[in-house]
Each structure stands twice: as C-alpha cells, then as structure tokens.
UniProtKB/TrEMBL annotation:
GO cellular component, one term: membrane
Name of the featured protein: Serine protease hepsin
GO biological process: proteolysis
CDD domains on file: Tryp_SPc (cd00190)
Organism: Synaphobranchus kaupii (Kaup's arrowtooth eel)
Length: 420
C-alpha cells in the first residue's frame, strides 16, 4: 500500500494582468449595483408621481404629504391648526370638504424628523398647497392628524344623447343632474357635495333669476320623475361668475369663466343613484389624449330633438395648441377652457348638455375615482369637423368654487361673484 503525499500549499501570485482583471470585475459589479439602485429609485419616484402629493392613509386615516426633496411620505404633526388643515387638505385632494378630523398617537414611539411635517406658518391661506406651510420636524407630541374626507367619484353600483353617443344606465353617472326651470329641462349639472351642484353660468340669464322656480332632478337617467330612485330638490341659491362677459355685453364673443354653483335648500341623502363627483386636485393638469365621458340630455343632432334618456359619449382631450389653431377656434379658446373631441367630429356635446359634466377617471388618490375636469360650455354647431366641444376648465376655478360655497352657503337668491 502506498502513502498519499500531501502537496505544499500553492502561493497565488497577483500579476498586473490579474490585478487589472479583478479591478475591472469589481468595477463592473459596482456599475451593475449603481444601475440597479438607479432603476429602483426611478421606479419609486415614478410610482410617487402617479399619486397626488397629499393622501389620507386608508388603513389609519392619517394625513400624509410627500416630501419631494427627500423622496418620502411624512405624517403631519398635530397642531392648533388641525381643523383648517383638514379642511384645506380635503379640498386640495378634490374631496370638497372634510367630514371629521382627529389625532392619532404614534405607538411605535418614532419621532424621527424623517417621519413628520409640522406647520411652520401662523395662518394657512386657502388656494395654496399645504406643502407651502409645512417643514420637516421631530413632532415632540408624537400625535399626528387624521382626516375623513367626503367620498366622491365612485359608483355604488357595479353594473357597468350626446351626438354620436349611447343611452346610459341608471346609476352609471350618479352625479349627473337635470336643472329644470318651471318643470322644463334647461341644463345639466354635477353633484359635488350634499348641498352643492356645479353648472355653467350661461344657464342663468336674467330671465331665469327667479330661484324658486328652479328644481334639480337627481338620481335619474330620465328628465322626469319616473323611477323610485329619483329625487327632486329645491334650489336655495345660485352663484355665477361675475366676469362671464356675455351677461355684461351680449355682443362680446368671449365665453370665459362660464361657471356657476347652486345650493340646495336641504342636504341630500346619498344613495346608489345619487353620489358626488370629485373635483380636480390642486394644480391638476389636463393630459392631451386623455379620454373623458360627457353626459347629458342634449340634442342628438344640431336641429334634432332632446332625448328622454341620458346619453353618454367618450371623447379625448385636445391640446391647447391644436384647439387654438386657426383651423379650430383660434383665439376664442382661452386658458380657462379646453376642447375635447375628434378631428372629424361625429361625437360631441350639443344644446341641452350645457352645464353638464366632462369627467375622467384617475388613481391620484390610489382608489380609482372620477373627477369633474370640465363643464359643458359652448361650441360651433354640434359634432362638426375641427369644431369640438369647449369646456370650462374646472381646475382653474377651485378657489372660486370654495369661496362661493363659504360666502353664500346661507344666502338665498341669485348672486354673482368675482374671482376668489
């Protein structure tokens, strides 16, 4: 039997060539790591930009605000400004109003400045984003603001004529209303809260200033009360924009600021068929090509008849550059309006749709919701080529709507109000 001999350990010599190979390998691995980190960071930021920068956590109702400088969400530390902060936060997110607010204690004891924002101003200014009044802090109390905003923009029912459109189904557009004067349909409108409706200023010329003769038909796809879901509400107040120029001089060809709101005499009870739509978030921009739904009881042809059943149609938002071109509307379209439709026409809003909603769905608040992006305002003919429907850009009037609701909540009659 022979004995196995053990060899002595080999010494590895690091030649310049091997050193270069190791260096390049480490450099490559480091580069891959950096690349992966960059991709992950990009994806996180891309996800963040898909949400609005103010959110209410659905699990614990805590108000959170995104810190774009450090790329993280922060809770808002409780302060003496909780009530107004809750109200403005809900408005900023498009929820119209806060139903309740409270405080919640951070049980984990975390008081890291990376986790909180604190109020750094003595007074909040409506119309501005709350981020302008917040700064990172340690939140010595460990108590954060919780908020319950009015829900909006969601259908309770799961079931899934505008020119070229189709008949709608009951409960599909639960914020749509018919504004009726002496029992006759005049305009459309949109529920935004249990008291307030948004419509167009041009629906309220002087001959329609007898507020007691207005009624709002809700919860129906018909212009008459033919279903048990229907509710007819009395109108207490109408407020329209005082700078809607055709009311000042009928010869002026400028339909800017074509917006109005109505207060109901009594608060609504929301049902499967009666629900509010969300408003745009503060500063929300309109995306070219974004599809929206326009609904109403307007004529199905320019010289046609108004349908008995609510109609709906889907049209894309047209860029300002296209809509203000000479082939379209040139300078008639201002920065308080936008256009939606197709180059060849065929699908459009028409007479009788005025004041009604142009809504689009998004996930800015995590949950998918419909927002009132536009109010049917005007157009040349109906469904003509390169003459799309023109809508009041609601995002431009959020401060006006908020101010009008506060100032005229208990002031009956028809009123005009300038910019907020």
């Amino acid at each position: 039997m022979t004995e196995k001999k053990h060899g002595s350990p080999r010494m590895v010599v690091l030649t310049p060539c091997r050193l270069a190979t190791i260096f390049l390998t480490m450099l490559l691995l480091g580069g891959i790591g950096v690349a992966v980190w960059a991709v992950v960071t990009y994806l996180i930021k891309a996800e963040d930009t898909g949400l609005y920068e103010v959110q209410v956590n659905s699990a614990n109702l805590r108000l959170t605000v995104f810190d774009s400088t450090h790329g993280r969400w922060r809770y808002v530390c409780s302060s003496s400004s909780n009530q107004i902060l809750a109200t403005i936060s809900c408005e900023e997110m498009g929820f119209v109003r806060a139903l309740n607010y409270s405080v919640s204690t951070m049980l984990d004891g975390s008081k890291d400045s990376e986790d909180f924002f604190c109020m750094d101003a003595k007074e909040l200014i409506r119309g501005k984003k709350i981020k302008e009044f917040l700064s990172p802090c340690t939140c010595a109390s460990g108590e954060v603001l919780t908020v319950i905003c009015q829900d909006c923009g969601r259908r309770s029912l799961t079931e899934d004529r505008i020119v070229g459109g189709e008949e709608s189904k009951l409960g599909r557009w639960p914020w749509q209303v018919s504004l009726q004067y002496d029992g006759a349909h005049q305009c459309g409108g949109s529920i935004i809260s249990d008291r307030w409706i948004v419509s167009a200023a041009h629906c309220f010329p002087e001959r329609y200033h007898h507020v007691g003769r207005w009624r709002v038909l809700l919860g129906s796809i018909y212009k008459t009360a033919t279903h048990k879901s229907v509710h007819v509400a009395e109108v207490q107040t109408v407020v329209f924009h005082s700078s809607y120029l055709p009311f000042i001089d009928p010869t002026i060809d400028d339909n800017s600021r074509d917006i109005a709101i109505l207060a109901l005499t009594n608060p609504l009870q929301f049902t499967d068929y009666i629900q509010p739509v969300c408003l745009p978030t503060n500063g929300q921009r309109l995306a070219e090509g974004k599809m929206g739904a326009v609904t109403g009881w307007g004529n199905t042809e320019y010289y046609g008849q108004s349908p008995d059943v609510l109609h709906e149609a889907y049209v894309p938002i047209i860029s300002d550059a296209v809509c203000t071109s000479p082939e379209y509307y040139d300078s008639q379209v201002t920065n308080t309006m936008f256009c939606a439709g197709y180059e060849k026409g065929l699908i459009d809003a028409c007479q009788g749709d005025s004041g009604g909603p142009f809504v689009a769905e998004d996930t800015l608040a995590k949950t998918s919701r419909y927002r009132l992006l536009g109010v049917v305002s005007w157009g040349t003919g109906c469904a003509q080529a390169k003459k799309p429907g023109v809508y009041t850009k609601v995002s431009r009037f959020l401060p006006w709507i908020s101010s009008a609701m506060r100032n005229y909540e208990n002031v009956p009659g028809v009123h005009k109000m300038a910019r907020a």
